[in-house]
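User: Okay, second chain of the day. Same drill as before: sequence in, structure tokens out.
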Amino acid sequence: MFRRIIDHPNLEYVRLIASFVSTVYVFKQYVGQLTVVNGPSMLPTLNRSGDLCICDQFSAQILRHIKVGDIVTCYSPRNRNNIVCKRVKGLAGDVVEVKARNNWESDRKVTVPQGHVWLEGDNRELSIDSREYGPVPTSLITSKIALRIWPLSQFGPLDPLK
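Assistant: Same drill. Structure tokens below.
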């Protein structure tokens, strides 16, 4: 009887589905996933209306291969339920010049501590970033934006040199 269950033709479909689901899960958890980026903080690099991007989680989480100029996603230091998208402006040990947001503040320099990065949006006027909440722990980084796939007219890798 047990032999009949093992040889049942529908069991092959169950194995195929289980294999597919586990492959998708591992890919999504450790390699990469699709992400929709919304909001004005990365204008003009990313559109406010929702660019669809492929995110590289493996480089960001496992290898910790992040460099200045990369665009990353991370948990917001202010609200861990939100994920934000910003550009890396400084790594641990770097001295970052923080420009004043208004006339009554002055420019300042900040040394990024070990285990942290300095993140800023490309749209300085509309971005809440490290200028407000300080250096961000690298443990909050979830992925690196690898490629924009939508809109098709802007398909391709993002400029890392801003």
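The chain has one domain: 2-150.

User: Thanks, on to the next one.
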